[in-house]
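Hey, resending since the last one bounced:
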Amino acid sequence: MHLTSRLETLHGPEDKLYVFMVDANRFKSINDNYVHLEGDHALKEIGEMLENTAAEFNGFTARTGGDVFVLIFTSQNIDDPEKVIAFANQTLADLRQRDQIPYELSVSIGYVATSDKNVSVRQAYHASMEKN
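The structure tokens again:
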């Protein structure tokens, strides 16, 4: 699993794993007002943003369910987690403009940094929601 391989790269307390939880804003409204086909399109746009963000900072991304996703990086690849959030938001705005999406498409992003090699995605998710 990707999380396990990333945890193995942590060598000391200064090395951190950053887990970002990404949640689509008002996704139910998109499905309700623009039908499920457009909801699928919105998820693909968010997926493209996540892939671009993961590639930019040498991390990985996964869908955890519904409209919730995870981005994972190590401190070897990012020095400021706020830069990741800014990049992700700008990328999604650019994609929205490129594809002329007629509705607001945005995400909420929370994160947690840990050096605990025994952390699970579930634990990181709850910690990121408490922090942000």
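The helical segments are 2-7, 27-56, 81-98, 121-131.

Sorry for the duplicate.
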